[in-house]
Design a protein that fits this description.
Length: 490
């Protein structure tokens, strides 16, 4: 006996992906439920609360195209400001009534006879529920699960141990000896704030990042008012930001030599802000710009130049109850240790208990090196769609652009499925290996694999399964005009 669907679509997650998907479903008149494991909406910008947390993509670009906001005060916004924007979108579109808070996806099983997904959920009080849907959309986020480094003795540390992705609301570093491991995006934002509060800050650096000036200019009241009264001006501003940012894709993907001009500006920025030649040498990157994410900051280098801040470049080999031990045998005594060590790029996807056709395990696919088509669909998982799946992250512009392209793609496939009177839609299996080969070949020419660094962009086999090796415009075109012959409608 086949299962009857309770709703058209179940959406998992209430970050940018889930909220954008919900608005599209609501506009189309489809019934849907959103599952959110936390007690409030949001993803990255709800969970990341470390000092200095902000976005390094311009706010007028890092927002929905259907909900432009004239009131951004600065070019780049703090994390809490972006979270407030998402809250406002949820209220404006009346999405809260569709959200089941404190409800995590426990398991999902596909019924081939009806094309319906049965989704089991659980809550923090131990209660469980079941919902059935004709489609399952995963918006669980790629940068979600903290990466905890394998350091001998880390669990023995007697002081406060914090990962930047799980910063306690009541934690203060004022007057304490603080150590921070990592110098990536989170660290570059966090370190200036920590340096202000700490009695002494020790920065453990594995490799120096490329830093460009941020120039976080403030929008004048007059400009904000013009954007409010003339939305066309705001759309033009957004379009200009998009064109400028997307030009970087060519340099990252196939022409790393084009990054030389930007490298010179970054070196000038370092020389202007760091006068000590020994410290400047420590902070000079030794790999090609773009191999890791290029960071923006006007306050990072001045923080490292302070007399009460040390930059340690010897490898971290262990942790004791009293501090961090480096390869030269030095014990760096600290009261608090901050891990700015990033995220597991597989995100929550690799831990989802989802069973597709013939018992195929979604989690095993991700653990073994997931293969997808355009980062949205997978073979043998009908009526299942990923938002920000494999090879759809970006290192050069706003990922919200990718999310919106994927949402449009999902809506097109659902509409075509229903127009044909089919109960399921899925990618043709033979297209998936071809897309995987394309991603491997294009990534092989990129700065991410040719730039001489090790980054979270690449998996344990050195394969890029994280970033899209191209411009956003190309990706949008491939998703918004999909060929029906690429999919099976059954």
């Amino acid at each position: 006996m086949s299962t009857v669907a309770e709703v058209d679509v179940v959406v998992v997650g209430t970050g940018f992906s889930g909220i954008g998907m919900a608005v599209a479903l609501q506009d189309a008149g489809r019934s849907f439920v959103i599952l959110e494991k936390a007690d409030e909406i949001g993803g990255t910008w709800r969970d990341n609360r470390y000092p200095g947390v902000a976005c390094d993509v311009p706010s007028h670009l890092y927002s929905f195209s259907f909900e432009l906001n004239p009131y951004w005060s600065h070019t780049y916004s703090r994390g809490d400001v972006i979270q407030d924007y998402l809250l406002a979108v949820v209220e404006k579109y009346g999405l809260r009534e569709h959200i089941r808070f404190d409800t995590a996806l426990h398991a999902a099983d596909y019924d081939e006879s009806s094309g319906v997904w049965t989704i089991a959920t659980h809550s923090s009080d131990g209660s469980t529920h079941t919902v059935t849907a004709r489609a399952l959309v995963l918006g669980v986020g790629a940068l979600h699960l903290p990466h905890i480094p394998l350091i001998d003795g880390l669990h023995t540390f007697a002081g406060e141990l914090i990962h930047t992705a799980a910063w306690p609301r009541d934690s203060s570093m004022f007057g304490r000896r603080v150590g921070i491991i990592g110098t990536g995006a989170s660290a570059v934002q966090c370190i200036p704030a920590l340096a202000e509060d700490a009695e002494h800050l020790t920065v453990f650096q594995r490799s120096a990042p490329w830093i460009m000036p941020q120039r976080n200019s403030e929008y004048s009241d007059a400009t904000i008012d013009r954007f409010r009264r003339h939305p066309a001006l705001m759309r033009a501003h957004r379009a200009a930001l998009r064109r400028r940012n997307d030009l970087r894709a060519v340099a990252f993907d196939s022409q790393p030599r084009l990054l030389e001009l930007a490298s010179r500006e970054a070196r000038r920025h370092l020389a202007n802000q760091i006068t000590d030649p020994q410290l400047r040498e420590k902070l000079t990157p030794t790999y090609t710009m773009g191999c890791k994410r290029v960071l923006l900051s006007d306050t990072y280098y001045p923080a490292l130049a302070r007399a009460d801040v040390d930059v340690v470049t010897d490898d971290v080999v262990g942790v004791t109850p009293d501090g961090v031990v480096t390869a030269d045998g030095t014990l760096h005594e600290i009261d608090a240790l901050v891990l700015a060590t990033g995220f597991d790029p597989r995100g929550s996807y690799a831990h989802l208990d989802i069973t597709g056709r013939d018992g195929r395990s979604f989690a095993e696919e991700w653990q073994n090196g997931v293969e997808s088509y355009l980062g949205v669909t997978m073979a043998d998982f009908p009526n299942l769609f990923m938002l920000l799946g494999p090879n759809t992250g970006l290192g050069h512009t706003s990922v919200v652009l990718m999310i919106e392209a994927q949402i449009a793609h999902v809506m097109t496939l659902l509409d075509e499925r229903d127009r044909r009177g089919a109960h399921a839609v899925e990618v043709r299996p033979e297209l998936v290996p071809a897309f995987t080969r394309e991603m491997r070949e294009r990534s092989g020419r990129s700065v991410w694999t040719q730039g001489g660094c090790t980054s979270w962009y690449l998996d344990d086999d050195g394969e890029n399964r994280t970033l899209w090796p191209g411009g956003v415009g190309e990706y949008e075109l491939r998703l918004t005009e999909p060929s029906a012959v690429d999919f099976l409608f059954t």
